[in-house]
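Subject: Protein record for review, amino acid sequence with backbone structure tokens
Category: Structural biology, sequence-to-fold work with a learned token vocabulary.
Format: Residues in single-letter code; tokens as whole numbers, each standing for a residue.
Body of memo: The sequence and its backbone structure tokens, given next.
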Amino acid sequence: MAIGARERETAMKWKGLCLGACLLAAAGLARGGGLPDVAFTDGQFDPADWEAAVVYVGNGGDYGVDMQDTGGNPGAFLRTRLDVNAHSGPEVRTSTVVFFRRIGLEYDPATQGEIASLDYTEDAIMLSGSVQSTGLVVWQDGRAYRTIVTEFRQTTWEGESLAGVLAEDLFGWVEQRDIHPDFSESGSPLEFGFFRGLSTTDIPYSMTAGIDNWSTTIHRVPEPATVFLVVLGAAALLRPRQRR
């Protein structure tokens, strides 16, 4: 093979590798990989940092919350007690659902970028009773939106997690399935938290659990200009070079 032909073949191989890298980068940016993630975490649960709102369904119940200095995973943790009264009446069940909001951690899509998806993690433990439900809560314009219920029963600390949560995966309060938060740049600022729930269809219950290492990670949609520059680079590689 002549030297010129070998050089042209090598150049074509490198061009193909660079083109593939550009296209992969553009695909990653389109999935929200162009901007760094924003993470909100709390493993101390200072009472001044958290606010609770409770919703009762049916015959209602009660709840209690306090911060424990020791016994967490590790160190301090938040203890949550939920009570439900004996069920009666036309509702399907009697429930106590408490929505917790982390004060002082806010994300504004208008200035920080549109949200592609959210990841949620926490450590959970049952301290008395058999079960509580948990999940991610997003607050916007004074309204709480939650994910579907995840039940936990473990009596030792274990992680609970949700990945790739979209705006349509979050709905209002208890059963308002037709309303969702706005993750776009026109949406209002958002705050984040978690919920605890307990239900009964007959007898009363009281369950106590703990939460530690709460975390919400925000994956952002990249700016269109960033994706455009990567695609432009790929197009430049495809343009034939003129012979001299």
In short: The longest helix spans residues 3-33. The CA atoms of residues 126 and 209 lie 4 Å apart.
